[in-house]
Design a protein that fits this description.
alpha+beta, Phosphorylase Kinase, domain 1, D-amino Acid Aminotransferase, Chain A, domain 1, 2 domains, seven-stranded antiparallel beta sheet, binds adenosine-5'-diphosphate, binds uridine-5'-diphosphate
């Protein structure tokens, strides 16, 4: 069994450790929750284990559908071995239904179905609050190459196609989500980080009840219940 060595990085939701294999890291998911660029802090009991196991479940599904991911092996409820990548400093956001910053910025009521999915980038930079940028900015700043942006965009829409169908089959509407990509040592771009109720907006298909981190961001209550409900529907043994 792989062992955690030095702590490489402690983020808001996960700790990342080195291992004996220089190409492999171990991520350890925490129950800590933050919102509004770290301004709001709290704990969601059980979140770490749910996000870890859910993310791995979804990454396995995506691998089968031809999207390469960083997943190596789930080590425990909270810990997973992943391929070490150099993270491309872009948050890639796909939207199917208006919500959150999109609704606010454009004055469109939350819940309006978009005519087609959108893709947008944020520059992954906590000090700046992850500002919205476009592909030209990313190229001009050297954050990614043209080929990488094309690969990332293609994968992101494929992830959306797979996840819309999958969540629909468990009674959930996929509103929007954020993903991150990274480069392996040979430059190959793969999906990294996580896919969980922290990084997706997930609404119950029938009632449109929010089953994601918006319950924490907006003090809607029943935060733990929402994460557990999503996890239960995944049917992971
Ligand atoms: P944040 O940095 O936003 O607070 P987290 O607490 O989730 O986020 O920390 C995890 C960090 O690890 C993130 O910065 C993420 O980009 C990075 N990361 C995710 N997967 C990998 C990977 N396979 N290799 C290297 N870094 C990764
Ligand atoms: N998101 C994320 N991390 C971020 C910003 C956004 O995981 O740092 C996710 C968020 O959970 C939602 C989607 O990306 O599923 C779109 O978020 P939006 O731009 O609407 O921002 P927010 O309303 O969360 O500020």
């Amino acid at each position: 069994m792989m062992k955690k060595l030095d702590l490489l990085y402690e983020g808001k939701a996960k700790k990342v450790y080195k291992t004996e294999d220089e190409n492999v890291l171990i991520v350890d998911y925490k129950d800590d929750a933050t919102a509004f660029n770290g301004l709001k802090k709290g704990t969601i009991v059980g979140k770490g284990a749910i996000n870890n196991r859910m993310s791995n479940h979804i990454f396995r599904l995506l691998e089968k559908e031809g999207v390469p991911t960083h997943l190596v092996e789930e080590l425990s409820d909270r810990e997973t071995a992943v391929k070490k990548v150099e993270i491309v400093p872009l948050e890639v956001i796909i939207r199917n239904v208006a919500a959150g910053s999109f609704s606010k910025k454009l004055g469109i009521e939350e819940g309006r179905k978009l005519l087609r999915p959108t893709l947008e980038f944020s520059y992954k930079n906590d000090e700046l609050g992850d500002p919205f940028i476009n592909g030209y900015y990313a190229l001009a700043l050297g954050l990614a190459t043209e080929e990488e942006i094309e690969t990332i965009s293609d994968y992101a829409f494929r992830v959306n196609d797979v996840l819309i169908k999958y969540f629909d089959s468990i009674g959930i509407e996929l509103i929007d989500f954020k993903i991150e990509f990274g480069r392996l040592a040979d430059g190959t771009v793969i999906l990294a980080d996580e896919i969980s109720p922290d990084t997706c907006r997930l609404w119950d298909k029938e009632t449109r009840e929010k089953l994601d981190k918006d319950r924490f961001r907006r003090d809607l209550g029943n935060v733990e219940d929402a994460y557990e409900e999503v996890f239960k529907r995944l049917g992971i043994k």
